[in-house]
Specification:
Blueprint: H1 4-7, H2 12-26, H3 29-39, E1 44-45, E2 48-49, E3 52-53, E4 57-58, H4 59-75
Antiparallel strand pairs: 1-4, 2-3
Helix pairs in contact: 2-3
Amino acid sequence: MAFAWKASGLTYNRYLAVAARVVRRSLKEEPRLQAEKRGEMDLRFAKWQNGKQGENKNLATANATAMADHADHGQS
């Protein structure tokens, strides 16, 4: 018998993210706010050139910018 999350087409990581969100939303106000803050991520990256680290950038912001640039170039 397959796991329900697998049968529905979810990856295990996605299943865990959904389950964590459900648990956080079921908490009372104060513990819920604290749990939601812990659930936020701030991923950063830096491009390396010639052995030197470039500027640290927020991954979500850089991804959104790249997606917008790609959409603009794709419609031209």
